[in-house]
């Protein structure tokens, strides 16, 4: 006996991609995610391609994965895709230390973030 199949986390006309460990703070990643929310998928890819922000590289990979999931797994039309959701959250934080003068040390926090992108097929009106 196997477990029953898990229900879909998104709607019928939607596809999802998640990156669980993107190196950088959630605040910086959210600035990049805000650039693509509500945009067409093709336009969002172009925005991320030519963005000067370093986090745009990882966000573009996740968006490309969501588009590929929509096309290959859910048979959605790539030209009609819209970024329905781009949510950011905190992941792990690596703790390191730096030695300082007089035998002291300070903490260095190296945060990681999560990015969840949902693309939706939108009917042409």
Automatic annotation (TrEMBL):
The keyword Cell division does not apply. Keywords: Ribonucleoprotein, Ribosomal protein, RNA-binding, rRNA-binding. GO terms for biological process: translation. It comes from the Bacteria. One of its GO terms (molecular function) is structural constituent of ribosome. SUPFAM superfamilies: Ribosomal protein L22 (SSF54843). Pfam families: Ribosomal_L22. One of its GO terms (cellular component) is cytosolic large ribosomal subunit. HAMAP family: Ribosomal_uL22_B (MF_01331_B). Belongs to the universal ribosomal protein uL22 family. This protein binds specifically to 23S rRNA; its binding is stimulated by other ribosomal proteins, e.g., L4, L17, and L20. It is important during the early stages of 50S assembly. It makes multiple contacts with different domains of the 23S rRNA in the assembled 50S subunit and ribosome. The globular domain of the protein is located near the polypeptide exit tunnel on the outside of the subunit, while an extended beta-hairpin is found that lines the wall of the exit tunnel in the center of the 70S ribosome. Part of the 50S ribosomal subunit. This is Large ribosomal subunit protein uL22. The gene is rplV.
